[in-house]
Amino acid sequence: MSELMVGLTLIEGAAAKGAVCLDGTLPGYHLHNGSGSGANSWVVHLEGGGWCNIVRNCVYRKTTRRGSSKFMDKEVAFTGILSNKAEENPDFFNWNRVRIRYCDGASFNGEKGDMY
Description:
Blueprint: E1 4-10, E2 28-32, E3 42-46, H1 55-61, E4 75-78, E5 96-100
Parallel strand pairs: 3-5
Antiparallel strand pairs: 1-2, 1-4, 2-5
């Protein structure tokens, strides 16, 4: 049986809110919708990447998938805990499974903005 390939979705409204990758491109995610008893449950995978803590590192990172959606894979294989195969992933195979791509250099911190 072949691996489940899931396409990249860019978040169209993100730029208007200042939520962009290091190079200004739109951030993205890969989502495979759940079904049956898992339709209302979620596995959320936050892709790691580490902070870019000096300007030189951040400038370099803008030319990689860790800083630009231009360089992200347009499809990724959902395996392991993201798999849709019950024999490989018995607990979560039919849940909604999403992989949030990392591209801002800030470890998903963001900033408080107008929320507080």
